[in-house]
# Entry
Amino acid sequence: MAPLPITAWSAVNALGRSTAEVLAALDAGRSGLGPSPLPATMETVVGAIPGALAPLPAEHAAYDTRLARIGWLAFEEVRGALEGAVARWGPHRVGVVLGTSTGGLEETEQAFDHWRREGTLPARYDYEHQHNFAAFGELLARAAGVTGPSYVVSTACSSSGKVASSAARLIRASVLDAVLIGGIDSLTRMTLQGFHSLGILSSQPCRPFGAGRDGINIGEGAALLLVEREASDPGAVLLGVGESADAYRMSSPEPGGRGAREAMERALAQAGLTPAQLDHINAHGTATPLNDAAESIAIEAVFGRRVPVSSTKGYTGHLLGGAGGTEMVFALHAIRTGRLPATLGATPLDPAVAIDVVTEPREQPVRTVLSNSFAFGGSNVAVVLGAAR
Amino acid sequence: MRPVHVAGMGLWSPGYADLAAWRAGTPDASVIKPKCRLVDVRLKRGSSRFANMLGEVVEQAARAAELDVRSAATFYGSSLGEIETMVELLRMLYEEEGKLSPNRFKCSVHNAASGLVSIGQGNTAFSTAIAGGARSFEATLLEAWAWLDAGEGDALLLAVADDRAPPPLDALDDHDALAVGVALTTRGAGPRLERLRVVEHAERHAAMSDALRANCASPGLELAAAIFDRREGPVALSPFGGPQWVADLVLS
# Structure
């Protein structure tokens, strides 16, 4: 496909409350993981947004949740660019397509507890504006004057990778000229307890591709990227997206990495690149024994040991529906700076992992990066991003 | 975007096992759970009625269009998604000291039906799950149509549904359960959707209760009724009024 300009981006997560803070922490090799602010029945560490979050502006009070407050931090950074796109293309030619896995579940958890104790839902609880998966995108569309389609792709942990292909198709089909993509999720008790029930939540900081790795850490955060039909001086470009389905198990990957491999091969094909033309991979790299084994087999099958691979889950935790978008921002940072982040927790490496895992920060020219996201239900996506020129 | 053909449709709602039953207008009180034969009993453990509704209408639409569910791309849409599963997990969270059922948790994601059907059928083709609030039908159709227009395939199965919300969230919705399936192809001779466009107001013609109308899948009933009644022209893609996308239906 023809490259599509990415004209603005932002990310907030456990590493910081602004993109600059997040990327500075990434460059410094500093993890954002720490104790869970939520009650849990197990030992674990999480990637929580640091500090208190300000309420939304009064005119958007109906949407005010922890999720929306996190997302608003990311939105404020791209707001000017989005409003510029609205002015340039027209409000109905701009859309908002975001990824989320749990939406405003944290608000409903609190409302449910209130109902159990008091017999009624809290007076200010509003499912449509606070929990519904589409609510946060609707908020951003309203705030920026976007009148084009606004909806969510919700395929669990691949959600905010898959929105990149949604944007590309909507622009290529001339339905839209600009699409705000990205993803968001916040910490919830149900997420922690649910992954614990599956036996894949680690009690320690996660160790992607490491020997003896024993599971994931959950994080929260938001990332937003503006994709446009054309731009005079884009920061980077979207080159291709590949998607596939494992058709294997609901919560574990096909062990031979077939689905992951197909997603990467399709992304490269759409980007018009050979494996030899790829400079870096931001892996899904959750640190579960099964994910990292299958993903490394798939990467090795497509790229051999040639391409350096980083997982950034040890910095932020697994952001679920926000992971793909966040890791696209990390990929863009690698393209801009030539810095490949170390995979925190990876050493000693699992000897069965036959790929080039980046265990110390590296600097090298980076023109193309592939970012993987895989999910429950066997949903896989790989996104290829590149330098603008 | 290039025109697409409506090659087949499916429907499930309590009392109505399929599209023919809904058209006949006489509810059958024994229809309370979809069969969803695409997913075997073992795999169904932990799955909701909602996921089975989606699987049921995918199967019906595929059969009507003579598409192979083992290889067709699938697009799922919903506003409330796995709300029954979520409420059951919330109950476990607070009443069973946080001990969640792993099977329930695995099936709590919005794309649970996508995973279940793909696993049940060994289907490795493209699949996605969309949430667009009340406009979930519109959003899912837009995604599906753009996928066909991009040439990523020449046929697909689309399913949009919402089940009733259980207590304590039942007070927040006013709709009946409904799932609608649509098979879309880029070639064929059947009814076709000529183009998508935005209008300030779209007429709704299909006879249905307010409770069915309020379901995010109800635009699928508008489409089915227009085809049955041989009524060409714009089909409203949102359950409610105001500016929205319409698809122009051509029957020749």
Q: What stands out?
A: Chain B has a mean pLDDT of 95. The two ends of chain B are 19 Å apart (CA to CA). Chain B touches chain A through 63 residues (CB under 8 Å). DSSP finds nine helices and eight strands in chain B.
